[in-house]
Design a protein that fits this description.
Layout: E1 3-8, H1 14-17, E2 24-25, H2 26-29, H3 33-45, E3 50-54, E4 58-60, E5 65-66, H4 84-93, E6 101-104, H5 108-117, E7 122-124, H6 133-146
Parallel strand pairs: 1-3, 1-6, 6-7
Antiparallel strand pairs: 2-5, 3-4
């Protein structure tokens, strides 16, 4: 069964800490604690098949280069986040529909977006029982520490 893992981007980016960082691979752009923890999980269990869902760029391969800082969020339409129809195009262009299952290691907002894009696929939300980022991070930490995938 071919699986991809989708993790969230984040508000805090490398340029917030290092303004002169310049163009940076997506895997190094998002430096917030929750975004980093989700990527750590993806790298542990899906090192060759995870993507970061960016509100500006859509599905980013970890090595895709981000040129500069930006402030776009799915939570505020005035920031012009990428729309579902565009996410579908990006997923097709990146051949992401050639999978059976999509694991979403993110909050519920990201899950609903991914579910809309991959409506014909099995979508797994292993963090749905968690109430808040702290509980999600604890569950992710436990999975990494025990080398057991989230279910």
């Amino acid at each position: 069964m071919k699986t991809i893992c989708i993790v969230p981007c984040g508000v805090k980016k490398i340029w917030d800490k290092y303004p002169d960082a310049g163009p940076t691979p997506a895997k190094d752009v998002y430096i917030g604690v929750f975004a980093r923890k989700c990527q750590e999980y993806a790298q542990a269990f899906y090192p060759d098949s995870y993507y970061i869902l960016s509100a500006k760029y859509g599905f980013l391969h970890p090595l895709d280069i981000i040129q500069e800082n930006y402030n776009v969020t799915f939570k505020e339409s005035k920031t012009n986040p990428v729309m579902i129809c565009e996410l579908v195009k990006i997923a097709k262009r990146k051949d992401l529909y050639n999978v059976d299952r999509v694991i979403v290691v993110a909050g519920k907002d990201y899950f609903h977006i991914v579910k809309s894009v991959f409506s014909e696929k099995e979508i797994v939300d292993p963090l749905k029982v968690c109430k808040g980022n702290g509980f999600m991070m604890q569950k992710i930490n436990d999975a990494i520490r025990s080398a057991t995938e989230l279910r």
